[in-house]
């Protein structure tokens, strides 16, 4: 199926259930982490523990092995899935087991142990209710924590009623749960082997932490005499004490629960007696705890990821699902589109690239638009968008130099020749924009004609339904060159960075920014500076982006050295200067620019705080506006400044609370993703067409958002700075 | 432990709809009787806490039941190693007296915890367990409220484990 068709079909069949559930998790996360006094510190602590553990992994694995063996268990280190399965099959065969009950484990899905055991005639039963629903339905998980998130209650009821034909048809969530509990309960007490995953393993005592709510993992261990635990090698942390930050963060980050019902801290083999559940004579404590424990630690690509400077961070992932739930695209399609063989959501790109290979990651990697809304949500501070970018870069280059990326790491070439045509077109948008302005209005007229749209659709995959940006003949730089500064004794001096769009397309917002800054006593210059590299970076063209970053920092450095501040209108470019350049240029070069760069309304806010005369700006007496900030701007914590300035000037501001407008740079232009982009945008449209908001003029900070809102609403949006100079 | 710890523990449990009652040792037998819904089973509590006064003799609770009696029981009574104030969490040790089975294979779990075993914070609780595990290589469940699932389209309390939990906190003032 073509990508656009596949996405359309998933949005139709699963979109509503996925959206409802992921948003509930995401809202819950915001609420739950807000209760933590030291949320940021806790994340940093968790991050540091993981960094240290992965750094010392071989040593910790040895320590863990010793501890488990002292406890009476066995450790098997499996190179890959086949190796792990062979061992598990052997243990199950030695126990002569007819049934294996399982608690939820992604790693066991990764190695497909169910199929391996079933081929030996063993009855494998998933006891997590969501996993069991999928086992009955013969479907794949769509979410790493709540695997059946794509199924509504009605769909589950239909499934059970059809499959099990109960006396009374099942209907409510409660009826479905109790029915499943009964069915599974009987099977659990009859099973010989319990197979679990592990969220964490502590090297000091051989203790495993299992984070669950249903109690099925507890039963899986308690009711069987042979426990097999399969876990990736990356799950090891040094000690029990170091579980504390994870216990506090994992539920909050994922499903928005402060803590899940059960965090089992098991040091197997456990002391619980192994009982015969049909025995009516022997007291519980008279049974022996005659138990076997096998820990199967799985490499399957992880140790190579550990050697890879770019993918290593993936191993810090605790699989909380925050990066799925906070992702606007994921909220609309779920893990069946936004996922690989086993893992789904933003971080899946790292997991699948490391475990399965680039081909698998390539199938869904483009769904990460780099909006960064997951970045602050990740409890171990993984730069998930960066991992997506790196993998995209490797996919682009795969034709050139296959398969060696995992060990080579990323070594940017001078050119990004490997990227497909569409990516190169969007990645080199600077050239297009320059040409567009130079030949406007002809370029705009030509671009809009039938034959060119047909060609763009065919050759570049640009959706014909999407309006194209219209280039201004006079760029912001040209306009500025022809005027004199109006500030005589400047308070401060600033470079207004002429980002690609402000310079060529949305020139009005650039003019308004210059005027607002000058009104507040800032001497402004608008020099010719290369584009930031955001466009190529978002296409995974890291080498080209690096080249931009080097040229931009070079062009701006003399100004910064001279005491100029750098003011940026386009939030995605500010995010380049203050976030992404850290990866692309030398550290001190990055720091100098990052420290001196400001989003335009953040800068205005700072000027006003420092005593600039607010009355030099336009004001209102309570006019309503609807404001949509920008995803990356919000990640940088800069939405509040715009709201504060507008309120200070007397506007009545309503803000959107969607994670992303759906446009995300070039994403919404692409034929494969246009409909998804509009579907994501639909939520923003609903918020801005609600009662009390419907008639408000709309302002938005980002270029993409402005274009998307333009497509979604009748009202033509503007940049908030334009309200300050009327 | 201070009364402040109890009140934070009680508040956290309240948010989970778990009743917590602070009781004296002489009230123990009566309070257990009130908390359980028969048929009830339990672990030998006097031994768990090494305090004969906490024996379940004289209550309707069948101590150390057979597996079949366990499966037919509505209520299970066990001790808890710790109570954790900020989350309303109980640390349930896994023992050879099958407390894991008694707290899990029932509809209603009644947990008895000594007030001196209450700690304010999760971190302290985990540190305490970590120190103990280093010695004993033991196991414990951090249990917070009843078992639950959202997998069937809405939040349901009572998945594989108990649907309801109740906590008795034994004061030290006798
Ligand atoms: S990458 Fe971070 S946010 Fe995503 S699942 Fe892993 S730990 Fe959670």
TrEMBL record, chain A:
Any one GO MF annotation of this record: 4 iron, 4 sulfur cluster binding
Coiled-coil portions: 36-70
SUPFAM superfamilies noted in UniProt: alpha-helical ferredoxin (SSF46548), NagB/RpiA/CoA transferase-like (SSF100950)
InterPro entries, per the entry: 4Fe4S_Fe-S-bd, 4Fe4S_Fe_S_CS, FTHF_cligase-like_sf, Helical_ferredxn, LUD_dom, LutB/LldF, NagB/RpiA_transferase-like
GO biological process per UniProt: lactate metabolic process
Taxonomic superkingdom: Archaea
Keywords: 4Fe-4S, Coiled coil, Electron transport, Iron, Iron-sulfur, Metal-binding, Repeat, Transport
Domain 4Fe-4S ferredoxin-type residues, every copy: 360-387
Protein name, as recorded: LUD domain-containing protein
Phylogenetic classification of the source organism: Archaea, Methanobacteriati, Methanobacteriota, Stenosarchaea group, Halobacteria
Automatic annotation (TrEMBL), chain B:
Organism field: Haloarcula salina
Domain of life: Archaea
Entries under Pfam families matching the protein: LUD_dom (PF02589)
Official protein name in the record: LUD domain-containing protein
PANTHER family, A to Z: LACTATE UTILIZATION PROTEIN C (PTHR43682:SF1)
Domain LUD per the UniProt entry, residue ranges: 9-169
InterPro entries xref list: FTHF_cligase-like_sf (IPR024185), LUD_dom (IPR003741), NagB/RpiA_transferase-like (IPR037171)
SUPFAM superfamilies referenced in this protein's UniProt entry, alphabetically: NagB/RpiA/CoA transferase-like
């Amino acid at each position: 199926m073509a990508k656009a068709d596949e996405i359309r079909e998933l949005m139709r069949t699963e979109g509503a259930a996925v959206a409802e559930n992921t948003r509930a998790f995401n809202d819950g996360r915001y609420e739950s982490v807000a209760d933590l006094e030291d949320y940021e510190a806790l994340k940093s602590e968790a991050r540091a523990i993981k960094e240290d553990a992965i750094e010392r992994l071989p040593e910790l694995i040895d320590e863990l092995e010793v501890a488990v063996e002292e406890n009476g268990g066995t450790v098997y280190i499996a190179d890959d899935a086949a190796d792990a399965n062979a061992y598990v099959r052997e243990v199950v065969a030695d126990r002569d087991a007819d049934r294996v009950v399982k608690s939820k484990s992604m790693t066991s899905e990764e190695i497909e142990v169910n199929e391996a055991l079933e081929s030996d005639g063993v009855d494998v039963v998933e006891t997590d209710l969501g996993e069991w629903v999928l086992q009955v339905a013969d479907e794949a998980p769509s979410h790493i924590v709540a695997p059946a998130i794509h199924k509504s209650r009605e769909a589950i009821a239909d499934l059970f009623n059809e499959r099990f034909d109960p006396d009374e048809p099942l209907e409510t969530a409660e009826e479905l749960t109790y029915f499943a509990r009964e069915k599974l309960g009987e099977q659990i007490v009859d099973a010989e082997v319990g197979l679990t995953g592990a969220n964490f393993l502590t090297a000091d005592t051989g203790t495993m932490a299992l984070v669950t709510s249903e109690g099925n993992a507890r039963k899986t261990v308690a009711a069987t005499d042979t426990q097999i635990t399969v876990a990736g090698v990356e799950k090891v942390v040094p000690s029990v004490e170091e579980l504390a930050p994870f216990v506090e963060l994992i539920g909050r980050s994922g499903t928005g629960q402060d803590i899940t019902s059960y965090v089992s801290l098991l040091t197997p083999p456990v002391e619980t007696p192994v009982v015969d559940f049909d025995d009516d004579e022997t007291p519980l404590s008279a049974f022996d705890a005659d138990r076997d424990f096998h820990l199967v630690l799985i490499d399957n690509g992880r140790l190579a990821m550990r050697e890879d400077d770019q993918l290593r961070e993936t191993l810090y992932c605790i699989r909380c699902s925050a990066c799925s739930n906070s992702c606007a695209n994921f909220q609309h399609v779920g893990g069946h589109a936004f996922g690989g063989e086993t893992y789904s959501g933003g971080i899946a790109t790292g997991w699948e690239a490391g475990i399965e290979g680039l081909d698998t990651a390539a199938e869904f990697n483009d769904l990460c638009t780099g909006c960064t809304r997951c970045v602050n949500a990740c409890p171990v501070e993984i730069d998930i968008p960066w991992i997506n970018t790196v993998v995209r870069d490797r996919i682009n280059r795969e034709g050139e130099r296959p398969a060696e990326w995992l060990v080579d790491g990323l070594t940017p070439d001078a050119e990004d020749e490997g990227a497909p045509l569409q990516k190169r077109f969007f990645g080199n948008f600077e050239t297009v924009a320059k040409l567009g302005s130079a030949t406007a209005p002809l370029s705009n007229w030509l671009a809009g004609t039938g034959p060119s749209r047909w060609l763009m659709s065919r050759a570049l995959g640009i959706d014909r339904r999407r309006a194209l940006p219209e280039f201004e003949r006079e760029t912001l730089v040209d306009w500025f060159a022809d005027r004199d500064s109006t500030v005589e004794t400047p308070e401060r001096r600033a470079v207004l960075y002429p980002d690609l769009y402000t310079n060529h397309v949305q020139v009005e917002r650039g003019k308004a920014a210059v005027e607002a800054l000058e009104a507040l006593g800032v001497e402004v210059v608008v020099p010719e500076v290369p584009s930031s590299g955001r466009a190529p970076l978002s296409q995974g063209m890291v080498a080209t982006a690096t080249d931009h970053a080097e040229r931009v920092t070079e062009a701006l450095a003399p100004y910064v050295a001279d005491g100029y501040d750098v003011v940026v209108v386009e939030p995605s470019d500010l995010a380049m200067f203050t976030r992404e350049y850290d990866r692309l240029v030398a550290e001190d070069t990055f720091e100098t620019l990052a420290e001196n760069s400001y989003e335009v309304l953040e800068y205005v806010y700072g000027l006003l705080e420092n005593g600039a005369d607010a009355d030099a700006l336009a004001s209102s007496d309570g006019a309503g506006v609807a404001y949509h900030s920008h995803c990356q701007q919000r990640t940088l914590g800069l939405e509040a400044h715009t709201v504060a300035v507008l309120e200070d000037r007397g506007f009545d501001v309503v803000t959107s609370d969607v994670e992303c407008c759906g446009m995300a740079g070039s994403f919404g232009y692409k034929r494969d993703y246009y409909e998804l982009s509009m579907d994501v945008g639909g939520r923003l449209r609903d918020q801005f067409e609600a009662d009390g908001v419907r008639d408000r003029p709309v302002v938005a900070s980002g270029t993409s958002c402005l274009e998307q809102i333009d497509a979604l609403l009748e009202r033509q949006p503007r940049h908030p700075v334009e309200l300050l100079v009327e | 432990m201070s009364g402040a710890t109890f009140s934070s523990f009680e508040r956290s449990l309240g948010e989970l709809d778990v009743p917590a009652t602070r009781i004296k040792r002489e009230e123990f037998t009566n309070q257990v009787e009130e908390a359980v819904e028969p048929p009830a089973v339990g672990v030998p509590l006097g031994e768990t806490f090494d305090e004969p006064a906490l024996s379940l003799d004289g209550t309707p609770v069948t101590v150390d039941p057979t597996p079949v009696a366990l499966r037919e029981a509505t209520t299970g009574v066990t001790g808890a190693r710790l109570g954790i104030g900020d989350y309303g969490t109980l640390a349930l040790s896994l023992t050879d007296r099958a407390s894991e089975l008694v707290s899990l294979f029932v509809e209603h779990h009644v947990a008895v915890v000594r007030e001196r075993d209450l700690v304010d914070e999760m971190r302290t609780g985990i540190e305490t367990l970590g120190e103990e595990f280093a010695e004993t290589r033991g196991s414990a469940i951090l249990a917070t409220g009843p078992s639950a699932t959202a997998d069937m389209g809405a939040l349901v309390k009572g998945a594989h484990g108990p649907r309801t939990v109740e906590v008795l906190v034994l004061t030290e003032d006798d």
